[in-house]
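hi! just following up on the protien thing from before. the input was this:
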Amino acid sequence: MIVIANNNGEETRIAPKILINGFPKSGLHLTELMVTCMARPFVEKPWISTFKDSAWNTEFQDIEFIKQRFWCPIEDTYVKGHCGYTPELEKMFYDFKYGIIFVHRDLRDVAVSQAHHVVSDKEELIHPDKDLYKALPTHEDVLKAVITGLDKYPGLIERWEQFAGWLDARWVLKLRFEDIKDNLKNTAELMVRYAYGRAAQIKGLKVSLDGRGVDWMVDAMLKMSKRTDLSATFRKGTTQQWRKEFTPEVTKLFKERAGDWLIKMGYEKDNDW
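and the predicted 3d structure came back as:
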């Protein structure tokens, strides 16, 4: 919690309630480590998804089921997950008084990370049908299958487009994974000011956070960000890994499927990459 001065000059304690959200394999682990300095998990395993099969498809759960899972009356807590966008879900999260940190990542690196995930023998890396991908002859074939889709599992871009609407939600904090990695301190401060600003807004307060209060929390977040041993799903957390794994054929296939998404997301100026 942080103590702030309210509109009457009196001291008021505020605590955020946060949803850490993102498309699968976009770097939520690092974000969660930092958020733990501001809030605690609502449940022991706070992973939640609005999709069936943990967001490996595009089929949304029933809205009443989603409401039941995400209803949380407690401040100073967080949940995390892969939550797609619809106007109804945006309104639900707003009405439930969450602050949302939406993390996105270069979709080429997402493809690489997902390709490793779907063939991993680690039990904690969940996918409902890993044998389907393991039966493919090469890693390049796995990458292609992630991009285009395989059997009943849609391709990368079709799935991403179920999340992309969060980029246009004005009250949501949007963060690029690459910016988190490259500008950790600035990102930590953004998170703190957003989370407590949103919590103050919910209470009808206008708040200007004290610099000292922000600084000590940012320092704690920077220290916590180094704890890569705390996640079961953490692999490398690197950027530009696609340059090592994309063959010319995979590159051509990705361009055909991705359209202008890399440009819209700020990763390329054109499609000549």
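The beta strands are 2-5, 11-14, 17-22, 40-41, 47-49, 77-82, 99-104, 149-150, 153-154, 173-176.
Residues 2-264 form a domain with the Rossmann fold fold (CATH 3.40.50.300).
cheers
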